Amino acid sequence: MKQYDLMLGEHAVGVARITREGLYLSVKCRCRLTDSQVHRVYLICDDCRTIDLGICIPMEDCFGINTKIPAKGIDLDQIRFCLDQNEIQTANKTEEIPVSCTQPIPCLSDLESARFSDESGTSYIILER
């Protein structure tokens, strides 16, 4: 089991624990929240991929979430956890990749968040990184 800080802005408000279970990772997050807002938990993989784990729900004496995600492509030494979308906006970057019919498209795993652009006769895939 590995343990990580769960960040809200620059403050650690809880902990996230990950346990490997075969092809999946079991993720358990616990945090103390004092405001009345709904908070969403994000797993950020090496600043280029973000996984939405869901919304923190009230538990015995805290808020938390229990979930499982596929372990494929997640380096446990390069991840961090945060609450709320505004925390991850600073990590996102945009990259334009030219599209050619004769070559495979790179970064196929990133296409989930991709947009298509066709400007001045050149086609591009826009990836949010």
Sum this structure up briefly.
The chain has 129 residues and is mainly β. It contains 1 helix and 11 strands, in the order ββββββββαβββ.
Task: Describe this entry's structure for a reader.
There is one protein chain. With 129 residues, the protein is mostly beta strands. The strands form two sheets. Strands 5-4-8-1-2-3-7-6 form an eight-stranded mixed sheet. The protein has a three-stranded antiparallel sheet with strand order 9-11-10, with no helix packed on it. Strand 10 and strand 11 form a beta hairpin. The relative contact order is 0.19. About 5% of the residues have low confidence.
What is the strand tally? 11
Report on the biggest sheet: 8 strands, mixed
Helix/strand structural class: mainly beta
Average pLDDT across residues? 78
Q: What is the chain-wise order of helices and strands?
A: EEEEEEEEHEEE
Reported CATH architecture of the largest domain:
Sandwich
Question: How much helicity do the residues have?
Answer: under 10%
| Uncertain segments | 87-93
Specify the CATH class of the largest domain.
Mainly Beta
Cα shape: globular
Strand content: over 45%
Number of helices: 1
Oligomer: single chain
State Rg: 17 Å
Number of separate domains: 2
Strand and helix map with partners:
Blueprint (H helix, E strand, L loop, with lengths): L1 E7 L2 E11 L2 E8 L8 E6 L3 E7 L1 E2 L4 E8 L8 E5 L1 H5 L4 E5 L16 E5 L2 E7 L1
